[in-house]
Amino acid sequence: MMRKLFLLISLFLLYAVEADAWRVFDKVAVKSVMKRVADWQIANPNKGAEHDDLDWTHAALYMGMVDWAELTEKEDADDSYFQWLLRIGKRNHFQVGKWMYHADFIAVGQPFIDLYSKYGNKKMIAPVMARANWVVENPAEVALELDYGKLETLDRWSWCDALFMAPPYMPNCMR
What we know:
With 175 residues, the protein is an all-alpha fold. Helix content is 62%, strand content 0%. Helix 3 runs antiparallel to helix 4 and helix 3 (56-76) runs parallel beside helix 6 (109-119).
């Protein structure tokens, strides 16, 4: 009998907690938090020399901001996040990072492809296309073995997060 009572009370508490959680995480509350995070990121850029506008750390931010910009434009008629992304692209002439093959420096191409898809301005995609074409026409010739002591081994996408950073933009460039 005690086990049944314990089970019943546990199920009731689980239901009560779950029902309360859904009230806390409604669409308006979630969007409010997302907006605060996006606005904070824009107001507090990482200005350190180790992570410039074209670095992978910013590329990951820009990819999320593209999604946020699409949502806010669609639901709130707010294009300010797209305008922020465009300012970054224009400031950097829509270039990707400095190392020809390194995934960390290619990742920033994806948000520029997304901006091109939205606005159709070929200046937004020309540098990304040029890099993609160059990489395809000049494949890296080093082994897949990753050795951080040999920078040339970073020319191959042989570490796990390189799969996030470089390949997604490649098919988009080849259309």
